[in-house]
Structures are given as structure tokens and as C-alpha cells.
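S1.2 Input.
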Amino acid sequence: MGHLVISMELIALRVILAVVTAIILASIAVTPPAYSGTKMYIKDSLEVTVRRGQGIEFKIIALLRPNEEVNALGVTGDWTEIQLKKGRHGWVLSRYLTDKEPRAKQVDQLDDKNKELADELKELKSDNAQLTDRQAELTPELDKNAQELVIRRTRHKELKQETASLLNIEESIKKGEEKSQDNSKQLKEIKATLTEGPSYQNIQWFLSGAGTLAGGLMLGGIFARRKRRYRTSLK
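S1.3 Output.
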């Protein structure tokens, strides 16, 4: 009798374990993985009720609009726990949630992006207009600077040519001075040679004799003319 009771208890335990195992396996197969703070969205079909617990018998605590964003905390069965504004928690049917961003929100984001781009384009156009005006203001000044640069380059070229000419003149003057010094030196040497050599003395003697002879001839002529005049007066 005792063995029969033990066998019945073992059979009961095995049945209970089998049932629990089957329930666990079924829940694993049916229940989606927990979101753990995943961003989700209400599908764009209708408004969804948020309840205090997992079932339609629980009180409705909020209504969610289509495409509204929620923060999913976890899933149990067909229900998903979400976090509402101001930190409140509630439960919604999982089939009304999606992790895909709603098209309406995508359109809104695109509209916002287009507005940002339009504003940036407007600013760029304004900057471009300002730069165009500034360029128009600077163009005459740049042209003037370009003309002055051409004039300065031309003047610089002329100065280089003038400098080259001056250098040539200075070189010519220097060569002339050197040649003049050489000529002066040669002239001094010639004078020294004429003064100190015998030819110079001979020339001096010749000039002295020629001077004496010329003086005698002049005196003789003077006396002869006087003599003729004297004879003429006597007659």
C-alpha cells in the first residue's frame, strides 16, 4: 500500500513537471523577446488604449494616437509594457506596436530637413550676394593695383637699365682715369728724359746761339737802316 502511494506521487510529480515544461516551452515559442527600453510606434490604424494590467478587464489609463512614439519595456504574452509620459507605466496589445518609423513621421522629418536646407540655401544666397557686392567694390581697386603694378615693373626695368648705364659710365670713367694716370706717368718720364739727357743741353746751346745770332742780325739791320738815313740826310 505504501509503495502504491509513492508511485502515485511520483506519477503526479512527473505530470506536473511535464505540464510546467510544456507551458514554459509554449511561452517561449509564443512570447516575443523583451524589448528592454526599445523605441516603438503605434500603428497608423486607430487609437490604442493603454491599460493598467495585461488584459481588457484592467482599467484604461491612457489613449495613444496613431504613429505616436512609446518606450517599450518588455513583453508578456500578447501584451507589451510601455512607459508613458511623466514616468507612468501601462500595457498595450503588442499587435498595435511596430518598430518601423511611421511614414508620416518620416515625411515630417523630411519636411523639417527640407526647411533646414531651404534656410541654409537662403543664407548661402545671401552670402553669395554679399560676396558679389564686395567683389564689385574691390574690382576697381584691384584693377588700379594691377595698373600700378605694371607701372612699377616698367619703372623698375627702366631703373635697372639706368643703373646699368651708370655702371658702364663709371667703368668708362675709371678706365679713363687709369689711362690719364698712365699718360701722366709717361709724360713725366719723357720730361725727365729730356731734362737730364745730353740732347736737352745741345738743344739749349743751339737755342742760345740762335738767339744771339738773331739778336746780332737785328742790331746790324737797325744800324744799317740808320746809316742809310744819315747819308740821305747829308745829301
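S1.4 Remarks. Residues 120-191 form one domain.
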